[in-house]
Amino acid sequence: ARPVVQAGDTVRAGQVIGEAQGRISVAVHAPCSGTVRGVAPALMPHPSGLSDLCIELEPDGREQAVEPRPLAWREAPRDAVFAHLRAMGIAGLGGAVFPTYAKLSGAPGELATLVINGAECEPFITCDDRLMRERAGEVIAGALILAELLPARRVVVGIEDNKPEAVQAMRVAAQAAGGGIEVIAVPTIYPGGGAKQLIRVLTGIEVPSGQRSTELGVQCFNVATASSVWRALVRGEPLTHRIVTIAGNVREPRNYETPLGSPVSHLLALAGELPGTTGHIMGGPMMGFDLPQRDVPVVKASNCVIAKSARLFPASPPAMPCIRCTRCVVACPAELSPHELYWFAKSRNFGKAQEYALFDCIECGACAYVCPSHIPLVTYFRFAKSEIWAREREKNAADEARIRHEARSARLEREKIERAEKLAAKTASAAPAAEEPAAPADGDPAHAAIARARAEKTRIEQDATALDPASVPPEALEAQRARLRELAEQKHEHD
Asked: By residue range, what is the domain housing residue 141?
């Protein structure tokens, strides 16, 4: 998004502070009222440890908010609804943070099934569980809205069976909404919360490599995303808060409804971080990543923060060579060959890695967890993906530069040809009329004689030029000279 405020500006809660740019983008809103302290790069919660442009906001404690902007979405055109969701900053809250309006508008017509993902399969994370227990009605209402917008004929909610309270609350809410929504308890098997894995369990459809679920008539949204869609359309509330689980080496593990942009360190202090913390993970213990520092902000993808300790996360033994036991193959939910992908990634044979469906890897970490050699397999896979993406960007940039160069060369050549044609036309039009043989006028013997004399002179000159003077007899040369003098005298008489 592009910042639309600057240092010193006063903002209200819910006010737009960043406009969406490009198709895969949504707006950013102030989570509270206050004063903008600055717009500058800041460290982000990302495994790369890179910075990005951020807006630093100092709250004033007044909680002054802009007026809600609900939308009569049933009467509004679909494009207007999608534009409203984009303006409200609605994005996927299950981890990918893909703009919700883009997923809705990209559907190829009516779908057979809408899957609402409430599986939440990773340990420690309970934010979706708590949301379904306390706000099941919002989730069900949002699911019904999504089903109408897609549209989809069937709506099914998948929740792991280790969350009985959430399953019961969602079933009660679905019944209160008039039925039509199935709430199914699925087996608690990691990583059952992956979109493709949950779709296979609930519908029996397996999404092939290189295809999207929408091509098979299925679309998937997270339960928190469904709730935020309902809030944006019915209440007119932008996405400024999300529920975050704080767990691990803390005194009171809890779920906090957190303003986006809040420092992670503030949440850890609220939960009572204990001594002996060795680091922090954003996300779950399997698919999460280490935070570069405690003061990074909470973002829309921040579902959980875990305080690590030596007891909860003992140090991994040093990696040993792969023994090709294929335990990783058995554990892989995507039915890949992680041991082969490891060799290709390590040797930087990225083409071969793509042939072995590297991008079907969901980075669940199951392969690394069961590896007896303690090889950080997912780290290698992430490295290979990032290298392929970087090379693809370089290739695209080179192709664009080549296309621009070819277009410029073609333009210059075209202009050169046009200039030459214009010059030739100008030269032809400016040629003296005397150089062209004059057409004899009808009934004018003088002009006819002049024309014959000029033609004869030209012929004789051409013949004389073509001949070698040394090979011509002197008599012939003298005769030619006499003839030329005679023609010259005739021309002088007529002039």
From this structure: 68-239
Q: What is the SS3 string spanning 204-261?
A: CCCCCCCCCHHHHCEEEEEHHHHHHHHHHHHHCCCCCEEEEEEEECECCCEEEEEECC
124 within 8 A of 248, measured Cβ to Cβ: yes
For residue 96, name the pLDDT band (cuts at 50, 70, 90): confident
- Local structure of residue 108 (DSSP, 8 states): -
Integer CA distances (angstroms), 261 to 25, 56, 208, 239, in order: 18, 8, 38, 12
pLDDT at 434: 47
- 54/73 same-domain check: no
Closest CA to 281 of 43, 46, 42, 41: 46
**Rounded CA gap, 29 and 16, in Å?**
4
Tens-place pLDDT, residues 28-37: 999 999 999 9
Nearest to 252 by CA among 273, 229, 237, 266: 273
Q: DSSP letter at 297?
A: B
Q: Number of structural domains, the chain?
A: 4
DSSP label of 91: B
> 109: which 2 tokens?
């017509």
Instruction: Please write the tens of the pLDDT for every residue from 353-381.
Output: 999 999 999 999 999 999 999 999 999 99
User: Does pLDDT of 480 surpass 90?
Assistant: no
Q: For residues 207 and 199, is the Cβ–Cβ distance under 8 A?
A: yes
Helix (H) or strand (E) holding 343: helix 338-346
Does residue 415 lie in a domain region? no
Burial string for 165-204 (b: 16+ CB within 10 Å, else e) reads ebbbbbbebbeeeeeebebbbbeeebbbbbbbbbbbbbbe
Our CA angle for 342, 345, 351, nearest 5°, is 120
3-state secondary structure of 117: strand
